[in-house]
Amino acid sequence: MADEIFKALADATRRTILDVIAERSGQTLFEICSRLSTRHRLDISRQAVSQHLAVLEAAGLVETRREGRYKFHDLNTAPLRQIAERWPVPGTSAPEESTP
Q1: DSSP state of 3
Q2: pLDDT value of position 86
């Protein structure tokens, strides 16, 4: 799974798409394309964005849900946490849970 995550994050356009989804969860493909065009000045087709989203979804970084004919995209940061936990920094400890 880590290979898919690194592949997904290796592309600058996919990282920008993740930024757009992180700004507001639950966007449709149309909304994502609009934000990429207006806020990030990316001239990219809907089909290309859809293909990038498929790579992000395969890596587990984007989750989708359907409501009627609409498909909504949400950011999933769990795979990133798993990678961060894979290589802990020596000399640091995990945050301790406080007990009541």
Answers
A1: H
A2: 85
Do 73 and 36 form a contact (C-beta atoms < 8 A)? no
Q: What CA–CA distance (Å, rounded) separates 1 from 93?
A: 25
Burial status of residue 52 (CB atoms within 10 A of its CB: 0-12, 13-18, 19 or more): buried
Q: Is this model's pTM higher than 0.90 or not?
A: no
Q: Which residues contact 39 (CB under 8 A, 6 or more apart)?
A: 20
CA distance 50 to 67: 18
5-40: pLDDT as tens digits: 999 999 999 999 999 999 999 999 999 999 999 999
Under a CB-based contact definition with an 8 Å cutoff, are residues 73 and 27 in contact? yes
Quote the tokens at residue 97.
């849970």
The Cα–Cα gap between 15 and 21 comes to 10
CA angle 34, 63, 56 (to 5 degrees): 70
Structure tokens at 40: 């990030």
Instruction: Supply the pLDDT for residue 48.
Output: 98
